[in-house]
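Hi V.,

You were right to ask for the full record rather than a summary. Here it is.
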Amino acid sequence: MFPSVQKRVREYLAARRIHRTRLVTKDGRCNIEFGNVLYSNHFALLVDFWTTFVEIRWRYVLLIFTASFAGSWFLFSLLWYWIAKSNGDLQWQHPPKNHTRCVDNIHGLTSAFLYSLETQTTIGYGGRALTEHCGGAITLLIVQSILGAVINCFLCGVILAKISLPKKRAKTITFSDMAVICPKRDGLCLRIRVANLRKTLLIGSQIYGKMLRTTVTPDGETIIMDQVNIDFVVDAGKDNLFFVCPLTLTHVIDKTSPFFEMAVDTLHKQEFELVVFLDGTAESTSSSCQVRTSFIPQEIQWGYNFLPIISRTKEGKYRVDFSNFSKTVPVATAHCAYCFHNEKGHHHHHQNPGVENQGFEVIDINDQ
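Predicted structure:
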Protein backbone atom coordinates (compact mmCIF):
# COMPACT_ATOMS: atom_id res chain seq x y z
CA MET A 1 0.00 0.00 0.00
CA PHE A 2 2.71 2.50 1.02
CA PRO A 3 4.83 2.00 -2.15
CA SER A 4 1.80 2.78 -4.31
CA VAL A 5 1.07 5.92 -2.29
CA GLN A 6 4.69 7.05 -2.60
CA LYS A 7 4.57 6.42 -6.35
CA ARG A 8 1.45 8.56 -6.69
CA VAL A 9 3.04 11.32 -4.63
CA ARG A 10 6.14 11.29 -6.84
CA GLU A 11 3.99 11.39 -9.99
CA TYR A 12 1.97 14.29 -8.57
CA LEU A 13 5.11 16.24 -7.66
CA ALA A 14 6.59 15.58 -11.11
CA ALA A 15 3.39 16.79 -12.77
CA ARG A 16 3.41 19.91 -10.61
CA ARG A 17 7.04 20.58 -11.50
CA ILE A 18 6.31 20.23 -15.22
CA HIS A 19 3.26 22.49 -14.85
CA ARG A 20 5.33 25.21 -13.19
CA THR A 21 8.05 25.11 -15.82
CA ARG A 22 5.62 25.68 -18.70
CA LEU A 23 5.02 29.11 -20.10
CA VAL A 24 1.71 27.97 -21.62
CA THR A 25 -0.30 25.24 -19.93
CA LYS A 26 -2.06 22.49 -21.84
CA ASP A 27 -5.37 24.38 -21.59
CA GLY A 28 -3.83 27.58 -22.99
CA ARG A 29 -3.27 29.70 -19.88
CA CYS A 30 -0.03 31.68 -19.63
CA ASN A 31 2.03 30.74 -16.58
CA ILE A 32 3.74 34.08 -15.94
CA GLU A 33 3.79 36.67 -13.18
CA PHE A 34 4.87 40.32 -13.07
CA GLY A 35 7.18 41.65 -10.40
CA ASN A 36 8.44 45.07 -9.31
CA VAL A 37 5.71 46.89 -11.20
CA LEU A 38 5.62 50.60 -10.35
CA TYR A 39 2.79 51.47 -8.01
CA SER A 40 1.65 54.27 -10.33
CA ASN A 41 1.11 51.75 -13.13
CA HIS A 42 -1.68 50.11 -11.16
CA PHE A 43 -3.85 53.17 -11.81
CA ALA A 44 -3.72 52.32 -15.51
CA LEU A 45 -5.94 49.32 -14.73
CA LEU A 46 -8.50 51.66 -13.17
CA VAL A 47 -8.42 53.98 -16.17
CA ASP A 48 -9.23 51.02 -18.43
CA PHE A 49 -11.94 49.97 -15.99
CA TRP A 50 -14.14 48.21 -18.58
CA THR A 51 -11.43 45.72 -19.54
CA THR A 52 -10.53 45.30 -15.87
CA PHE A 53 -14.11 44.43 -14.95
CA VAL A 54 -14.46 42.00 -17.86
CA GLU A 55 -11.21 40.19 -17.06
CA ILE A 56 -11.57 39.78 -13.28
CA ARG A 57 -12.82 36.50 -11.86
CA TRP A 58 -16.49 35.66 -11.58
CA ARG A 59 -16.41 35.67 -7.77
CA TYR A 60 -15.35 39.32 -7.77
CA VAL A 61 -17.90 40.27 -10.42
CA LEU A 62 -20.72 38.75 -8.38
CA LEU A 63 -19.38 40.43 -5.24
CA ILE A 64 -19.26 43.83 -6.98
CA PHE A 65 -22.73 43.21 -8.45
CA THR A 66 -24.23 42.53 -5.01
CA ALA A 67 -22.30 45.28 -3.24
CA SER A 68 -23.19 47.91 -5.86
CA PHE A 69 -26.94 47.41 -5.58
CA ALA A 70 -27.04 46.84 -1.82
CA GLY A 71 -24.71 49.82 -1.24
CA SER A 72 -26.73 52.18 -3.43
CA TRP A 73 -29.98 51.10 -1.74
CA PHE A 74 -28.52 51.76 1.70
CA LEU A 75 -26.91 55.07 0.69
CA PHE A 76 -30.16 56.44 -0.71
CA SER A 77 -32.10 55.08 2.28
CA LEU A 78 -29.98 57.38 4.47
CA LEU A 79 -30.85 60.30 2.21
CA TRP A 80 -34.57 59.45 2.32
CA TYR A 81 -34.35 59.13 6.08
CA TRP A 82 -32.65 62.54 6.26
CA ILE A 83 -35.38 64.13 4.12
CA ALA A 84 -38.10 62.57 6.26
CA LYS A 85 -36.35 63.70 9.45
CA SER A 86 -35.85 67.24 8.11
CA ASN A 87 -39.55 67.46 7.29
CA GLY A 88 -40.63 65.99 10.64
CA ASP A 89 -42.23 62.90 9.07
CA LEU A 90 -40.78 60.28 11.42
CA GLN A 91 -42.99 58.61 13.98
CA TRP A 92 -40.80 59.47 16.96
CA GLN A 93 -41.07 63.16 15.98
CA HIS A 94 -44.86 62.99 16.63
CA PRO A 95 -46.04 64.92 13.55
CA PRO A 96 -49.50 66.58 13.83
CA LYS A 97 -52.53 65.09 12.12
CA ASN A 98 -52.62 67.74 9.40
CA HIS A 99 -48.88 67.35 8.68
CA THR A 100 -47.91 67.08 5.00
CA ARG A 101 -45.30 64.36 4.49
CA CYS A 102 -42.62 64.21 1.79
CA VAL A 103 -42.98 60.42 1.57
CA ASP A 104 -45.95 58.60 3.04
CA ASN A 105 -45.41 55.72 5.47
CA ILE A 106 -41.73 56.30 6.25
CA HIS A 107 -41.45 55.86 10.00
CA GLY A 108 -37.78 54.93 10.43
CA LEU A 109 -34.59 53.75 8.78
CA THR A 110 -36.02 50.32 7.90
CA SER A 111 -39.00 51.78 6.06
CA ALA A 112 -36.64 54.30 4.36
CA PHE A 113 -34.47 51.38 3.12
CA LEU A 114 -37.56 49.59 1.78
CA TYR A 115 -38.66 52.73 -0.05
CA SER A 116 -35.16 53.17 -1.52
CA LEU A 117 -35.21 49.56 -2.77
CA GLU A 118 -38.72 49.94 -4.24
CA THR A 119 -37.74 53.18 -5.98
CA GLN A 120 -34.51 51.91 -7.58
CA THR A 121 -35.98 48.59 -8.67
CA THR A 122 -39.27 50.26 -9.80
CA ILE A 123 -41.29 47.81 -7.75
CA GLY A 124 -43.60 50.28 -5.98
CA TYR A 125 -45.78 48.15 -3.70
CA GLY A 126 -48.04 51.15 -3.04
CA GLY A 127 -47.61 51.38 0.73
CA ARG A 128 -44.99 54.13 0.50
CA ALA A 129 -45.35 56.91 -2.05
CA LEU A 130 -43.76 60.27 -2.80
CA THR A 131 -45.87 63.41 -2.48
CA GLU A 132 -45.56 66.61 -4.52
CA HIS A 133 -44.90 68.91 -1.56
CA CYS A 134 -41.09 68.44 -1.29
CA GLY A 135 -38.89 69.54 -4.19
CA GLY A 136 -35.79 67.94 -2.67
CA ALA A 137 -37.50 64.57 -2.52
CA ILE A 138 -38.47 64.81 -6.19
CA THR A 139 -34.87 65.65 -7.11
CA LEU A 140 -33.57 62.71 -5.07
CA LEU A 141 -36.05 60.41 -6.82
CA ILE A 142 -34.75 61.48 -10.23
CA VAL A 143 -31.11 61.05 -9.19
CA GLN A 144 -31.69 57.59 -7.74
CA SER A 145 -33.63 56.41 -10.79
CA ILE A 146 -30.88 57.54 -13.18
CA LEU A 147 -28.06 56.13 -11.05
CA GLY A 148 -29.89 52.82 -10.64
CA ALA A 149 -30.32 52.54 -14.42
CA VAL A 150 -26.60 53.26 -14.94
CA ILE A 151 -25.53 50.60 -12.42
CA ASN A 152 -27.95 48.10 -13.91
CA CYS A 153 -26.77 48.67 -17.50
CA PHE A 154 -23.05 48.61 -16.61
CA LEU A 155 -23.09 45.46 -14.50
CA CYS A 156 -25.41 43.58 -16.86
CA GLY A 157 -23.09 44.56 -19.71
CA VAL A 158 -20.09 43.22 -17.81
CA ILE A 159 -21.82 39.91 -17.15
CA LEU A 160 -22.93 39.61 -20.79
CA ALA A 161 -19.40 40.43 -21.99
CA LYS A 162 -17.86 37.82 -19.71
CA ILE A 163 -20.31 35.17 -20.88
CA SER A 164 -19.56 35.92 -24.54
CA LEU A 165 -15.76 36.07 -24.21
CA PRO A 166 -14.05 34.44 -27.22
CA LYS A 167 -11.88 32.28 -24.94
CA LYS A 168 -15.00 30.34 -23.99
CA ARG A 169 -15.29 29.26 -27.62
CA ALA A 170 -11.70 28.06 -27.36
CA LYS A 171 -12.78 25.50 -24.76
CA THR A 172 -14.38 23.47 -27.56
CA ILE A 173 -11.09 23.22 -29.49
CA THR A 174 -8.88 20.37 -28.32
CA PHE A 175 -5.37 19.24 -29.17
CA SER A 176 -3.88 15.76 -28.89
CA ASP A 177 -2.07 14.97 -25.64
CA MET A 178 1.10 13.98 -27.47
CA ALA A 179 2.92 15.06 -30.61
CA VAL A 180 4.59 12.48 -32.87
CA ILE A 181 7.56 12.44 -35.24
CA CYS A 182 7.27 10.08 -38.20
CA PRO A 183 7.98 9.98 -41.96
CA LYS A 184 5.42 11.78 -44.08
CA ARG A 185 5.49 13.45 -47.52
CA ASP A 186 8.92 12.04 -48.31
CA GLY A 187 10.32 13.72 -45.20
CA LEU A 188 10.47 13.51 -41.45
CA CYS A 189 7.57 15.42 -39.89
CA LEU A 190 6.31 16.54 -36.50
CA ARG A 191 2.56 15.96 -36.31
CA ILE A 192 -0.15 17.22 -33.92
CA ARG A 193 -3.88 16.63 -33.98
CA VAL A 194 -6.52 19.29 -33.37
CA ALA A 195 -10.31 18.91 -33.30
CA ASN A 196 -13.31 21.22 -33.26
CA LEU A 197 -15.94 19.78 -30.92
CA ARG A 198 -18.69 22.00 -32.36
CA LYS A 199 -20.28 21.68 -35.76
CA THR A 200 -20.02 25.44 -36.32
CA LEU A 201 -16.82 26.33 -38.15
CA LEU A 202 -13.97 28.67 -37.33
CA ILE A 203 -13.74 31.07 -40.27
CA GLY A 204 -10.30 32.09 -41.53
CA SER A 205 -8.42 29.68 -39.27
CA GLN A 206 -4.63 29.97 -39.15
CA ILE A 207 -2.12 27.61 -37.55
CA TYR A 208 1.37 28.52 -36.39
CA GLY A 209 3.81 27.62 -33.65
CA LYS A 210 6.65 29.02 -31.57
CA MET A 211 9.53 27.13 -29.99
CA LEU A 212 10.61 28.73 -26.71
CA ARG A 213 14.07 27.92 -25.39
CA THR A 214 17.06 29.50 -23.69
CA THR A 215 19.93 30.28 -26.05
CA VAL A 216 23.40 31.77 -25.65
CA THR A 217 24.62 34.18 -28.33
CA PRO A 218 28.22 34.12 -29.65
CA ASP A 219 28.82 37.21 -27.53
CA GLY A 220 27.95 35.26 -24.38
CA GLU A 221 24.53 36.85 -23.86
CA THR A 222 21.89 34.50 -22.47
CA ILE A 223 18.45 34.96 -24.05
CA ILE A 224 15.70 33.48 -21.93
CA MET A 225 12.57 32.49 -23.81
CA ASP A 226 14.08 32.89 -27.26
CA GLN A 227 11.33 32.39 -29.85
CA VAL A 228 11.74 30.40 -33.07
CA ASN A 229 8.97 30.20 -35.67
CA ILE A 230 7.54 26.74 -36.39
CA ASP A 231 5.45 26.46 -39.55
CA PHE A 232 2.55 24.01 -39.63
CA VAL A 233 0.54 22.93 -42.65
CA VAL A 234 -2.27 20.51 -43.40
CA ASP A 235 -3.10 18.80 -46.66
CA ALA A 236 -4.94 21.89 -47.92
CA GLY A 237 -2.39 24.46 -46.77
CA LYS A 238 -2.05 26.50 -43.59
CA ASP A 239 -4.58 29.33 -44.08
CA ASN A 240 -8.39 29.29 -44.31
CA LEU A 241 -8.71 25.73 -43.04
CA PHE A 242 -11.92 23.78 -43.57
CA PHE A 243 -12.17 22.89 -39.90
CA VAL A 244 -15.20 20.62 -40.02
CA CYS A 245 -13.41 17.48 -38.78
CA PRO A 246 -10.19 16.80 -36.83
CA LEU A 247 -7.05 17.91 -38.64
CA THR A 248 -3.46 16.71 -38.36
CA LEU A 249 -0.97 19.56 -38.31
CA THR A 250 2.36 18.78 -39.94
CA HIS A 251 5.72 20.48 -39.51
CA VAL A 252 8.33 19.30 -42.01
CA ILE A 253 11.70 18.77 -40.32
CA ASP A 254 14.15 20.19 -42.84
CA LYS A 255 17.49 21.96 -42.45
CA THR A 256 15.75 25.17 -41.35
CA SER A 257 13.81 23.40 -38.59
CA PRO A 258 15.16 23.46 -35.02
CA PHE A 259 14.25 19.74 -34.79
CA PHE A 260 16.78 18.89 -37.51
CA GLU A 261 19.63 18.73 -35.00
CA MET A 262 17.70 16.44 -32.62
CA ALA A 263 17.58 12.64 -32.57
CA VAL A 264 15.54 9.96 -30.89
CA ASP A 265 18.07 9.56 -28.05
CA THR A 266 18.60 13.31 -27.50
CA LEU A 267 15.06 14.65 -27.88
CA HIS A 268 14.00 14.13 -24.27
CA LYS A 269 17.24 15.69 -23.02
CA GLN A 270 16.43 18.98 -24.72
CA GLU A 271 14.93 21.95 -22.87
CA PHE A 272 12.32 23.70 -24.95
CA GLU A 273 8.59 24.30 -25.15
CA LEU A 274 6.62 24.07 -28.37
CA VAL A 275 3.60 26.41 -28.26
CA VAL A 276 0.93 25.90 -30.93
CA PHE A 277 -1.61 28.61 -31.81
CA LEU A 278 -4.89 28.40 -33.68
CA ASP A 279 -6.52 31.72 -34.63
CA GLY A 280 -9.98 31.99 -36.13
CA THR A 281 -13.36 33.72 -36.11
CA ALA A 282 -16.36 31.97 -34.62
CA GLU A 283 -19.08 31.49 -37.22
CA SER A 284 -21.96 31.91 -34.76
CA THR A 285 -20.76 35.04 -32.93
CA SER A 286 -18.28 36.60 -35.43
CA SER A 287 -15.80 37.05 -32.57
CA SER A 288 -12.10 36.32 -32.97
CA CYS A 289 -10.58 33.70 -30.70
CA GLN A 290 -7.21 32.08 -30.17
CA VAL A 291 -6.54 28.57 -28.91
CA ARG A 292 -3.17 27.71 -27.40
CA THR A 293 -1.44 24.62 -26.11
CA SER A 294 2.14 23.54 -25.52
CA PHE A 295 4.32 20.45 -25.77
CA ILE A 296 7.53 19.74 -23.88
CA PRO A 297 10.12 17.16 -25.06
CA GLN A 298 8.59 14.44 -22.85
CA GLU A 299 5.30 14.87 -24.75
CA ILE A 300 6.79 14.19 -28.20
CA GLN A 301 6.99 10.57 -29.36
CA TRP A 302 9.67 9.79 -31.93
CA GLY A 303 8.79 6.96 -34.30
CA TYR A 304 5.03 6.99 -33.84
CA ASN A 305 2.00 8.03 -35.86
CA PHE A 306 -1.62 8.69 -34.97
CA LEU A 307 -4.34 6.10 -35.47
CA PRO A 308 -6.99 6.90 -38.11
CA ILE A 309 -10.17 8.34 -36.62
CA ILE A 310 -12.32 9.27 -39.65
CA SER A 311 -14.47 6.57 -41.18
CA ARG A 312 -17.61 6.13 -43.24
CA THR A 313 -20.66 4.24 -42.04
CA LYS A 314 -22.79 1.91 -44.15
CA GLU A 315 -25.31 4.73 -44.58
CA GLY A 316 -22.62 6.88 -46.20
CA LYS A 317 -22.14 9.28 -43.28
CA TYR A 318 -18.74 10.42 -42.08
CA ARG A 319 -17.95 9.54 -38.50
CA VAL A 320 -15.16 10.58 -36.13
CA ASP A 321 -13.96 8.14 -33.47
CA PHE A 322 -12.56 10.30 -30.68
CA SER A 323 -11.44 7.25 -28.71
CA ASN A 324 -8.44 7.11 -31.07
CA PHE A 325 -7.84 10.86 -31.07
CA SER A 326 -4.58 10.76 -29.06
CA LYS A 327 -3.61 7.10 -29.58
CA THR A 328 -0.45 6.32 -31.47
CA VAL A 329 1.21 3.29 -33.09
CA PRO A 330 4.92 2.72 -33.76
CA VAL A 331 6.14 3.18 -37.33
CA ALA A 332 9.52 2.70 -38.99
CA THR A 333 11.38 5.97 -38.49
CA ALA A 334 14.98 7.07 -38.82
CA HIS A 335 16.91 8.02 -35.69
CA CYS A 336 17.31 11.62 -36.86
CA ALA A 337 16.43 13.86 -39.77
CA TYR A 338 19.99 13.66 -41.12
CA CYS A 339 19.80 9.86 -41.12
CA PHE A 340 16.46 9.99 -42.90
CA HIS A 341 17.88 11.95 -45.83
CA ASN A 342 21.35 10.38 -46.01
CA GLU A 343 21.12 6.80 -44.75
CA LYS A 344 18.97 3.89 -45.79
CA GLY A 345 16.95 1.85 -43.32
CA HIS A 346 14.64 2.87 -40.54
CA HIS A 347 14.16 1.70 -36.96
CA HIS A 348 11.18 0.85 -34.81
CA HIS A 349 10.57 2.32 -31.37
CA HIS A 350 8.04 0.51 -29.19
CA GLN A 351 6.20 2.65 -26.66
CA ASN A 352 2.57 3.25 -25.75
CA PRO A 353 0.97 1.22 -28.57
CA GLY A 354 -2.48 2.30 -29.63
CA VAL A 355 -5.62 0.20 -29.76
CA GLU A 356 -7.33 -0.20 -33.09
CA ASN A 357 -11.09 0.14 -33.36
CA GLN A 358 -12.33 -2.76 -35.44
CA GLY A 359 -15.84 -1.30 -35.70
CA PHE A 360 -14.78 1.34 -38.22
CA GLU A 361 -13.85 1.16 -41.84
CA VAL A 362 -11.00 3.54 -42.54
CA ILE A 363 -11.46 5.81 -45.55
CA ASP A 364 -8.87 5.57 -48.27
CA ILE A 365 -8.49 9.19 -49.36
CA ASN A 366 -6.84 8.09 -52.61
CA ASP A 367 -9.90 6.08 -53.60
CA GLN A 368 -11.91 8.07 -56.16
